[in-house]
Design goal:
With 520 residues, the protein is mainly α. It has helices at 3-36, 40-57, 61-68, 70-89, 94-120, 128-156, 161-164, 166-180, 194-217, 222-244, 258-288, 293-299, 301-321, 324-341, 350-377, 384-424, 430-445, 450-487, 489-492, 501-507. It is globular, with a radius of gyration of 24 Å.
């Protein structure tokens, strides 16, 4: 096996469990809180603390890789993530679990930008689409595998296994990296941009923390406003500091490359549409259809399988014909499939859902990684590590923002729908009276008294109306998600073949000619 494909396997194995871990923990969290006898607000911090930790460490990935060598930092991150997983499994309280999740997050925040940098500095330009498509497989599979595996472990094993399951895969990833990665040159005297790092960590961290609590606290909550204010002020200050710094922790000059800016903007729209819908589907299956986590995860498998196919084929298309065709086709397929989800209800057949989700997965695979590959390919090779760090933190912010917005929309739509429906379910509604009478007669046949049957029928009618209001809210949110995804086709039209002579000249040749280019 050639060195470039060894690096791809190292990158995939190194990020696989990190991507799945977040979903597994979200599934197991209610059970963990019950074991520790803690409330949901404390439990939510288990998730938000991890997000904050990834935002704190990700900006330092480029600096650490340049100063200490890519191999050393990558392997140290694997060991730290491994230690954090074991400690999480040994946690004796919510506080200890939060602390150990922070350790996991600090390591996880480094792994993805380092993995992307390894690929871009070792895989030839003409094969990067395929390589990045393969790296995207864990990202695509994570929500489905995490939901299914987490549901199975919680229902049939022990919640601590949700963390111990990381151990064998991470151990393999560590030894594969130890054997195969050829280290990059080190810059021992590279200075650390402390001001830029602190501002970036505070800015990204507080924004992600605030977004994680928006569904619970609301956009107008004082705490959310304070967090967003601190985050925005920190980010603006960070920009001014980095523009003046000789050796910035994150060089925002990457945005002067038109392709990188275009790719980031596209990632914003795509992530908002894709991840918000990925967030809503498990909620619909579990809260409306009454499925367990394991059962809903099984129903989502066709989407994951379709996404794997789409990611691999889309990567090949990228290498052959450039980013525009696969991205536009992927957005079209995904958008149309998401619009179809806007028509589902409690009676929709599972087979219908599987077909819709499978097509949606294929479209997701076509659209996601080619955009990231295009953006990173537009910057000079020495800025790849910087660009990948910014890309990963930005994607976390985009997905959290999309989740917060769509969660808020679901709540708002449901309340409005319920209020409207309750107005129609009154004494003057012939349909409501007939439905109520039918339920009451059926209950009386079971032996209930007239009064008891009437009260029970009213309760059931209210519950039925509530379910209908939720279904309508999900349908509207899916329709909006589909429109957002289809709208991304417009900026995707401006993608171009990123084999620009200017970028290639700045790279100093392709990776095939210079397989171990110094980063930093």
């Amino acid at each position: 096996m050639s060195y470039k494909w060894k690096i791809v396997l190292v990158a995939i194995s190194g990020t696989f469990m990190m991507m799945i871990d977040a979903t597994i923990v979200n599934i197991a969290l209610p059970h963990i809180l019950a074991v520790f006898n803690d409330n949901i607000s404390r439990g939510q911090f288990v998730t938000s603390a991890y997000l904050m930790a990834t935002a704190i460490s990700a900006p330092a990935a480029s600096y650490l890789g340049s100063k200490f060598g890519m191999k050393r930092v990558y392997l140290a991150s694997q060991l730290t993530f491994l230690a954090g997983s074991v400690l999480c499994g040994l946690a004796w309280s919510t506080n200890s679990l939060i602390f150990f999740r922070i350790i996991q997050g600090l390591a996880g925040g480094l792994l993805m930008p380092l993995a992307m940098t390894l690929i871009f500095t070792n895989v030839p330009k003409e094969e990067r689409g395929t390589a990045m498509g393969m790296l995207g497989i864990p990202m695509i599979l994570a929500p489905t595998i995490g939901t299914t595996l987490g549901g199975y472990l919680v229902e049939f094993a022990d919640w601590r296994m949700c963390f111990y399951v990381n151990v064998p895969i991470v151990v393999i990833a560590f030894f594969v990296g130890l054997a195969w990665i050829i280290d990059t040159p080190k810059k021992a005297n590279l200075p650390l941009d402390w001001k830029g790092y602190i501002l970036a960590a505070v800015g990204f961290g507080t924004i992600l923390y605030g977004l994680s609590y928006v569904p619970s606290w609301g956009w107008s909550d004082t705490r959310i406003i304070v967090l967003f204010t601190v985050g925005i002020v920190s980010m603006v200050s960070w920009v001014f500091v980095e523009l003046r710094e000789k050796v910035p922790i994150l060089d925002i000059k990457v945005f002067k490359y038109r392709g990188y800016s275009l790719g980031t903007f596209l990632n914003f729209i795509i992530t908002m549409g894709l991840f918000s819908s990925m967030f809503m589907m498990p909620l619909f299956l579990q809260n409306i259809r009454g499925m367990g986590a394991f059962e809903s995860g099984l129903l989502l498998i066709p989407q994951a399988m379709g996404a794997v196919v789409g990611t691999i084929v889309g990567g090949r298309f990228y290498d052959k014909i450039g980013p525009r065709p696969p991205v536009m086709l992927g957005l079209l397929i995904t958008g149309l499939a998401t619009l179809q989800l806007g028509r589902i209800d409690t009676t929709t057949a599972d087979s219908t859902l599987r077909w819709i989700l499978a097509f949606r997965g294929v479209g997701m695979g076509f659209a996601m990684m080619p955009v990231t590959t295009f953006a990173l390919a537009e910057v000079p090779m020495y800025l790849t590590s910087q660009a990948s760090s910014i890309n990963n933190v930005a994607r976390s912010v985009f997905s959290s923002l999309g989740t917060a917005i769509f969660a808020s929309m679901l709540t708002s739509f449901q309340k409005d729908n319920l209020a409207t429906m309750m107005q129609t379910v009154g004494q003057n509604s012939i349909t409501a009276v007939q439905t109520l009478a039918g339920i009451q007669v059926g209950l009386q046949k079971t032996g209930m008294s007239v009064d008891a049957a009437h009260q029970t029928a009213l309760t059931l009618l209210y519950q039925l109306t509530t379910v209908r209001s939720y279904v309508a809210a999900f349908d509207t949110a899916f329709l909006i998600g589909g429109v957002v995804i289809l709208a991304a086709i417009i900026p995707a039209f401006f993608l171009y073949d990123n084999a620009s002579k200017k970028a290639q000249a700045a790279n100093g040749g392709t990776p095939a000619e210079k397989p171990h280019v110094e980063i930093g």
